[in-house]
Amino acid sequence: MSQDQNHPQSTKAQVTQAAQIGLPQSALRRRLIEALILVFCVGVIGLGTYALAFRAELDQAAERAGADLALSSDRLRAGLERYRELSVILADHPIIMDLVTARAAPPAGLQAATSQLLQAMADQTGSHSMMVVTRSGQVLAATDRFAAPKGVTPAIQRAMNGALGSAHFVDDQGQRRFVYAAPVFLKGAGAQGAILVHVDLETIEWGWPVDPFAVYFTDASDVIFVSNRTELILAGGGDKAFPAQSKQVIAGHDVWTMTAGPYIPPRVLHIERPLPIVDMTAELLFDLRPVMNLAALQAGIVAAIALAFGAFVVLATERRRTLFDANTRLEARVAERTQDLEQLNRDLKRAQADLVQAGKLSALGEMSAGISHELNQPLMAIRSYSENAQLFLERQNPDKAAKNLDHIADLARRMGRIIKNLRAFARQENEAISDVDLSAVVDAALDMTMGKISGAGVTLHWQPEPNMMVRGGEVRLQQVVINLISNAVDAMAQSPEKHIFIALGASPVSGPDTPDMLRLSLRDTGSGIADPDKMFEPFYTTKDVGTAQGMGLGLSISYGLIQSFSGSIRGRNISQGGAEFIIDLPRAKTHT
Ligand code: ADP
């Protein structure tokens, strides 16, 4: 049996091995695909996170850049403001008003005094130069150094119209100037002259702190006029100042990518706001590298988490798949085994049935001599009774003849009963367990073994008992009792005293916990059991092997049969000599 099981196992092991040899390629491909999908998903998640984080950071950067731009614009405005105030205050100065009043022929002393005043004011305020001009542009007084009012004509014009004029230009030395032109009003004549205050823009820029961002101010002709980055000054705004530039609008913000020298970052946020007070546009380039780094960091963290989670999911799935495969294989093996076991069970049942039948036939073989004697005897008797009946009829004695016929009928009935029992016994069929009368079972067994018993000169002690109903199979129980009787007769072959005692009664093992049991005991006066521990083993016999008697199966079959009825059978030697066999069987319910 173990060999039978080992063989399919080793075949299965080979199949599994073969499957495993084929596994890596497909599994490797599957894992590669899973890894690619994972990497792709992680990439998409990382890029998505980067885009979102970049946009969010961009909003904040725009806010900061806006504040910076406002601050820078204020700085420029505040730097120019004092010169503006100065021009307005000087326009009301009596000396200047006198000079403008006497413009056609100013006294030399007045002109010099005015020039002195202007110089003193310029020195104190740090303005580049000042001058007083007439409506036609004629210079009436000026600081030591002064340039002709080039490029300021529109500003003077504006002053002559009664408003504060302003202008910016590059002077002959290539310096950037900002100029305020304040009108000088004469009583009843309106604006007749103007005081011009020139500012050197470089001196204003010098006062600015070093900012991490580039800020610049472009005029109407798109020229960068003021900036905290010298390389940008006087460059054309937009494309001219920033070559190789690409402009994008991301989430409503201008993002410029470019190469514009070491002091301009490669990727910037560009913002601008008009600055009407100086007639320029303020613009700022905010370095986006920290923003990009922050977004990349966030994207990296999210991607790492996604990667870890994805790897966990992939591994868990892989593990589940492995477990599932193992489980499927196991289930298949269990099913296969179950099938094998069921087949074995069927084979076992058939073998048992065959064995029981063999046991019965063996018992019949043993009994055949006795049976033929048992049938022969009544046959002989029938013959002599019928001859006698004939004689009585010839002698006109019908009463005696009738009696003989009665005897014949009795004997025929007895023979019929024996034959019926034998046929039932020899038939191979699986009778169901039912209520069986133990007394009838013993009677039938005795009917079939009577030949053997009386042939051996054994005296039988047997008293049938009423209501001895047990659960069992009638023929199988007969087989057990026949076997016990036959063994007892065999064991007494050499005994001077030959007695068999068969008794029925309630079993002492019956109690509240055990089912109600009935007991059949069979005792002989034979040699006793040679080895009580071995006698229920199959093929154990002390009789001549090969004869009809000694197959060594009777007791082992009996043991199996009684067990199948939930009963028990045991045997022992008794003190006064001989063996006793005891069978306990559950009592039928209907009689309890
Ligand atoms: P078999 O009758 O073919 O030998 P059994 O299984 O019926 O096979 O009996 C096994 C053995 O048990 C017998 O050979 C005998 O040694 C012993 N045995 C059985 N019944 C008795 C008995 N009543 N007295 C003595 N020995 C017995």
Describe this structure in words.
- By secondary structure, the protein is α+β, with helices and mostly antiparallel strands.
- Among the domains are: 92-204, PAS domain (Beta-Lactamase, 2-Layer Sandwich), CATH 3.30.450; 376-426; 434-591, Heat Shock Protein 90, CATH 3.30.565.
- It contains ten helices and 18 strands.
- It has a six-stranded antiparallel beta sheet with strand order 7-6-11-10-9-8. Strands 2-1-5-4-3 form a five-stranded antiparallel beta sheet.
- Strand 3 (165-170) and strand 4 (176-186) form a beta hairpin.
- Helix 6 (289-394) crosses helix 9 and helix 7 crosses helix 8.
- 31% of the residues are buried.
- The model is unreliable at 1-22 (pLDDT under 50).
- The structure holds adenosine-5'-diphosphate.
- Adenosine-5'-diphosphate is lined by residues 483, 487-488, 491, 524, 526-530, 535, 540-543, 549-556, 579.
- It catalyses: ATP + protein L-histidine = ADP + protein N-phospho-L-histidine.
